Amino acid sequence: MSLRTLDDLGEIEGHRVFVRVDFNVPLEGGAVADDARILASLPTITELLDRGATLVLASHLGRPKGKVNGALTTHGPAERLRELLGRPVTWVAHPVPDTLPPDPLVMLDNLRFDPGEEANDPAFAGRLAELADAYVDDAFGAAHRAHASVSALPELMLASGRSAVAGRLLQREVEVLGELLRDPARPYVAILGGAKVSDKLAVIDALIDRVDALLIGGAMANTLIAADGGEVGESLVERDRFDDVRATLAKAKNKGVLIEVPQDAVAAAEISLDAPRQTVPAAAIPRGLKALDIGPRTVEDYARILADAKTILWNGPMGVFELASFSAGTRGVAEAVGASNAFSVVGGGDSLAAIAQAGLEGSFDHLSTGGGASLEYLEGRALPGITILEG
Ligand code: ADP
Ligand code: MG
């Protein structure tokens, strides 16, 4: 199965191409607060414009649940795109019009203002299909959702003899993450952190079939440590997942996969910038304290393992990185990734924010734009937005 790309689009000069982008970006007062996803879509947009196509761009933004929500229009992202490209972008308010202005670059309003988007409604997809001669999907972050703009729409385009292909961003994601599924250079080490083990059990399970070592941090480490009989004080723990976690640890042991949990933790009584901190054994957190970051010894242990890795995958911060006092573990691990010669990939909204905050984007070979989509892809699942573009 291979992915159809812009190379398979044929002659598009003078044609209108529908481009599903992922402009699901954080806003502040309607303006774009972080434009990484818009920047990531520029190669596809400029290539299509250079080839003489006119474009209609569309994205979802947040969760308006099928209703118009003034705080979630795509006007701000369209404005940012105009600044980045240095050319006009015609923004069209909801609802999707029957005919578009003849401008070279048109951007629709938030697709999720229409209930048909999340319902994968063929009637809504049909209205989108009316607008274009060809379809390009560059929204990796939405590829795991069977929604109209990434599923029913490309189906309709193909059924009517029009092209439906992946843009350059989606193509690169599939190439990089696909290689991690197929034949990663070894040792292959995954670093997993974040808040909840329940969000990530499926990916941990799938990774155990592929990696040589798993390094665990973040609040999910507490659940692993507590399931194994450790004392985690007031730390965030998911007690209802102990059985799942024990089964996962047993599977890892069977397969000879090394699972490392933190030896030490930075703990405090509350999640606040100036709460007094203590470095304590991660399996003996004093009563009344919560583990909020991995400790310096753990960073050293993980750095030693990462130094020998040939492939590294990272998802989920090692601690409450949003507060400077609990960000050292995440930063230390990011620096260790940068110091290794491994091919390194990081995904996840908060993970990317943590790396940007530390100014360590350059430490990674690939920053995946998909949060949930990257994880589902790495679980080896078929993503609806990708399968439709294969063959
Ligand atoms: P990503 O978005 O990269 O997939 P997650 O959403 O799974 O990451 O987790 C990120 C969140 O986990 C952050 O908000 C961070 O503050 C939180 N977190 C990490 N470690 C801890 C901890 N020890 N206790 C509480 N929250 C934590
Ligand atoms: Mg997150």
Bound molecules: adenosine-5'-diphosphate, magnesium ion
Shape: elongated
| Beta-strand content | 15-25%
User: How many helical elements?
Assistant: 14
* Number of E-state strands: 17
Brief descriptors of the model:
single chain; binds adenosine-5'-diphosphate; elongated; 391 residues; 6-stranded parallel beta sheet; 17 strands; binds magnesium ion
Summarize the entry for a quick read.
With 391 residues, this protein is an alpha/beta fold.
How is the secondary structure organized here?
Blueprint: E1 16-20, E2 27-28, E3 31-32, H1 36-50, E4 54-58, H2 75-85, E5 90-92, E6 105-108, H3 115-118, H4 122-129, E7 134-137, H5 152-159, E8 163-166, H6 168-182, E9 188-192, H7 197-208, E10 213-216, H8 220-227, H9 242-255, E11 258-260, E12 264-268, E13 278-281, E14 290-294, H10 296-307, E15 311-315, H11 328-339, E16 343-347, H12 349-357, E17 366-367, H13 372-378, H14 384-387
Parallel strand pairs: 1-4, 1-7, 4-6, 5-6, 7-8, 9-10, 9-15, 10-11, 15-16, 16-17
Antiparallel strand pairs: 2-3, 12-13, 12-14
Helix pairs in contact: 1-2, 4-5, 7-9, 8-9, 10-11
The structure holds adenosine-5'-diphosphate and magnesium ion.
Magnesium ion (MG) binds at residues 348-350.
Describe this structure in words.
This protein is 36% helix and 17% strand. It contains 14 helices and 17 strands. Helix 1 crosses helix 2 and helix 8 crosses helix 9 (242-255). The protein is elongated. 49% of the residues are buried. The site of magnesium ion (MG) has 3 residues, from helix 12.
